[in-house]
Amino acid sequence: MAIPLPGRQVRGSTTGKPIMALLDLLGRTWSLGIIWHLHTGPATFRELQQRCEKISPTLLNTRLKELKTLQLIESQASGYQLSHQGVDLFAIISPLGSWSSQWAQALKEESKL
Amino acid sequence: MAIPLPGRQVRGSTTGKPIMALLDLLGRTWSLGIIWHLHTGPATFRELQQRCEKISPTLLNTRLKELKTLQLIESQASGYQLSHQGVDLFAIISPLGSWSSQWAQALKEESKL
DNA sequence: CACCATGCTACAAATACTGTAGCATGGTGT
DNA sequence: ACACCATGCTACAGTATTTGTAGCATGGTG
What we know:
The structure is a homodimer. The first copy, chain A, is mainly alpha-helical. Chain A has helices at about 20-25, 30-40, 45-50, 55-70, 85-95, 95-110; strands at about 75, 80. The longest helix of chain A is centred in the C-terminal third of the chain and has 17 residues, at about 95-110. Chain A is globular and about 50 Å long. The interface of A and B includes residues 26 and 93 of A.
């Protein structure tokens, strides 16, 4: 699958709008998960595999290449880590953590009725 | 694919943490796109298909069921629309729009060097 | 130089998504 | 009442993506 570059046609959109490239990227299995798990700090390939619990090395590597090309992560001696842009992106999505808790709660309440 | 309910084991995580259910959901093809395209207002099935440009009706329907079960969208006479929770979720991710523009810009600058 | 850990690739099996056709239902016009 | 149309959605075969396991290559350690 081609890396979703802003400005190009991506999966689901021919317009080339950056948001569409981003949604394509984040909609790929594990993209969000990798970013999420990396925010706790740099990790080596094998450690990242463990943080993600169940990702296959093949796909992990594929995603890492995509994220690196799109400058959301970078690899250093300490392993993979979020880039400056990656940190920014994480800052936007980090409220999902607490939002998801209240959402889970609401679903639970609902199911009681 | 089973609907990622918080509290259950989901794709990529056995912990049942709500955030993992959410990341599983949002990481599925088109989930984010549907939420994104719905924020501009209610849409009928066929109109949503058009907003999404290239989604297959099979998958659109699958995603709509998931999102409905998880109470992020609801269907009314006017068509599908974001639920209260869906609007909340969108509020969190909406900064991705402008973030993606500056990201696209940065990638472009980079490629000039 | 044996031993081990790490980063990563190979590849077949399993799963998810697409694309096209088309059915069922509920209007609208005549 | 009846042809005509749009809509919501399903069927299903073909294609693309993801998983799971095995294992290779490289570099460090005793």
